[in-house]
Specification:
The structure holds two protein chains of two kinds. Chain A is mostly beta strands. Chain A contains no helices and eleven strands. Chain A is about 0% helix and about 50% strand. The chains are: A mainly beta, B mainly beta. At the A-B interface, strand 5 and strand 10 of A face strand 5 and strand 10 of B.
Chain lengths: ~110, ~120
């Protein structure tokens, strides 16, 4: 299976801060990566697909990028409603696998 | 707006078979893949596999021969069966639509999830 290593496992930041989460893939998955947001007690919600494409209706403060096998998810200005766990997911090879998740909290 | 809703027992005894159904409304089950994902308490997400509306499927090898899925196009539903369950199968189970276009695949609609506890 493709291993997705996500970091950090949790972070705390202030409203308005830039937040960055990383997922590293092994082996290479090209750009075949999605990001999901999961609020407490809720199902995940697709935010970004194919590394950097924003799903319809998702605020532009969310973004994604790639450098080789390292993928970055960013929130440009953290808002209170962004408190959630964020998951990366690869779809290069079956079975599709997820990162361990990053819990984002407000400081 | 596509909506998915899981249904099934919330408690299953060890060694028995877990059975869940996902009802799809607001759109047709045809021309899409349909997936099951689970999340043990306090842990990450695990893809269990998916099934195309015509019966083509792919299961996670980690579940070996315990998992099976089916699609009922006449009722716009798809189902999951997981046999010989143990406490390790206790999780929130989600159904989701897997939309693929060219090389891009994404899980764009999800059910609310249902907690299944394995306990005697």
């Amino acid at each position: 299976d493709i291993q997705m290593t996500q970091s950090p496992s949790s972070l705390s930041a202030s409203v308005g801060d830039r937040v960055t989460i990383t997922c590293r893939a092994s082996p290479d998955i090209s750009s075949y990566l999605n990001w999901y947001q999961q609020k407490p007690g809720k199902a995940p919600r697709l935010l970004i697909y194919d590394t950097s494409n924003l799903q319809t209706g998702v605020p532009s403060r969310f973004s994604g990028s790639r450098s080789g096998t390292e993928f970055t998810f960013s929130i440009s200005s953290l808002q209170p409603e962004d408190v959630a766990t964020y998951h990366c997911q690869q779809y290069s090879n079956l079975p599709y696998t997820f990162g361990q998740g990053t819990k984002v909290e407000i400081k | 707006q596509v909506q998915l809703q899981e249904s099934g027992p919330g408690l299953v005894k060890p060694s028995e078979t877990l059975s869940l159904t996902c009802s799809v409304s607001g759109g047709s089950i045809t021309n899409y893949y349909w997936s099951w994902i689970r999340q043990p308490p306090g842990r990450g997400l695990e893809s269990m596999g998916y099934m195309y509306y015509n019966g083509r499927f792919s299961y996670n090898p980690s579940l070996k021969s315990r998992v099976s899925m089916s699609v009922d196009t006449s009722n716009n539903q798809f189902s999951l069966k997981l046999s010989s369950v143990t406490a390790a199968d206790t999780a929130v189970y989600y159904c989701a639509r897997l939309a693929c276009s060219g090389p891009t695949c994404l899980l764009d609609y999800w059910g609310q999830g249902t907690l299944v506890t394995v306990s005697s």
